[in-house]
């Protein structure tokens, strides 16, 4: 463990933040940026949801980039040189509509960073939003995880993103919401296959600090990723409200160090920038 002086020298960057540009965001980019400054962050990236379906289930092939860019400029003007602001996106549910994902991708302005995410089970479970998993038996939870990993592998093969977001996301809802103790231990071969796809392509993974709960993914998967040659790792709180901005970023830097990493990653213009831990 490092001393106080070393901790104070940490470069603090939160690379998963949602604003009112997301259906579930509550605060503007400016408000989230000002909170990040208050929390001691030196850099943040706004990564609002860019999904292939609207949240009411309608197909989607557009996004209000004019509104997003106006919000981003407002945040830049208000925050000046007090923090580095980057604009990104979290592309979700790509595997349900690759055609619409391509349209969305082509219509994006120049971005600094893109997260690729899956938030649902597979077609077998009617693309169930993981948030709505209900109490069931262990076999059902394992089947959800299996289907989710299948979609994650398809997303990895598509590959038009910089990092895979919250790789073990089902655990957020199965364990935290339903009080279970599930893990990905029985699926390491599936996880390794995903790593074999993304690592040679220069893509990475996110350590989602999960708003102070168990990180997604945890130490076992992070060590496996590192052992397989994985180097690109971003840190993100997944904040949708101000209270979660910057949550556990310092502690998850320590987690990365304990798993054998010597740097984490930020992005400029979709190019990785390596920051010493």
Mean pLDDT: 96
Assembly type of the shown chains? single chain
Number of strands: 9
CATH second-level architecture? Alpha-Beta Barrel
**What fold name stands as the CATH topology?**
TIM Barrel
Structure report:
The strands form two sheets. The protein has a seven-stranded parallel sheet. It has a two-stranded antiparallel sheet with strand order 8-9. The chain has one domain: TIM Barrel (Alpha-Beta Barrel). Helix 5 (138-158) packs parallel to helix 7 (188-198). The protein is α/β, with parallel strands linked by helices. The chain has nine helices and nine strands. The mean pLDDT is 96. The protein has helices at 4-8, 29-38, 65-79, 98-106, 138-158, 170-177, 188-198, 219-227, 249-258, and strands at 13-17, 43-51, 84-92, 113-117, 163-164, 204-208, 233-236, 263-268, 271-276. The longest helix is centred in the middle third of the chain and has 21 residues, at 138-158. The N and C termini lie close together (12 Å).
């Amino acid at each position: 463990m490092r001393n106080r002086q070393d901790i104070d020298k940490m470069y603090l960057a939160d690379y998963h933040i949602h604003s009112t540009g997301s259906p579930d965001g509550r605060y503007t980019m400016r408000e989230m940026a000002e909170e990040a400054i208050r929390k001691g962050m030196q850099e943040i990236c706004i990564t609002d949801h860019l999904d292939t379906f609207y949240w009411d289930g309608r197909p989607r092939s557009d996004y209000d980039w004019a509104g997003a860019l106006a919000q981003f400029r407002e945040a830049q003007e208000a925050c000046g040189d007090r923090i580095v602001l980057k604009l990104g996106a979290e592309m979700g549910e790509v595997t349900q509509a690759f055609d619409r994902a391509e349209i969305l991708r082509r219509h994006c302005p120049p971005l600094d960073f893109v997260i690729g995410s899956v938030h649902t089970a597979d077609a077998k479970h009617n693309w169930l939003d993981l948030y709505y998993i209900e109490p069931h038996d262990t076999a059902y939870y394992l089947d959800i995880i299996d289907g989710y990993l299948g979609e994650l592998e398809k997303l990895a093969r598509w590959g038009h993103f910089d990092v895979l977001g919250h790789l073990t996301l089902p655990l957020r809802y199965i364990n935290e919401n339903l009080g279970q103790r599930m893990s990905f231990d029985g699926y390491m071969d599936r996880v390794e296959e995903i790593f074999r796809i993304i690592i040679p392509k220069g893509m990475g993974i996110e350590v989602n600090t999960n708003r102070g709960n168990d990180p997604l993914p945890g130490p076992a998967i992070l060590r496996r990723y590192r052992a397989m040659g994985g180097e690109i790792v971003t840190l993100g709180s997944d904040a949708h409200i101000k209270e979660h901005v910057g949550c556990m970023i310092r502690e998850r830097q320590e987690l990365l160090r304990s798993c054998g990493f010597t740097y984490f990653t930020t992005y400029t213009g979709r190019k990785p920038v390596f920051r010493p831990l």
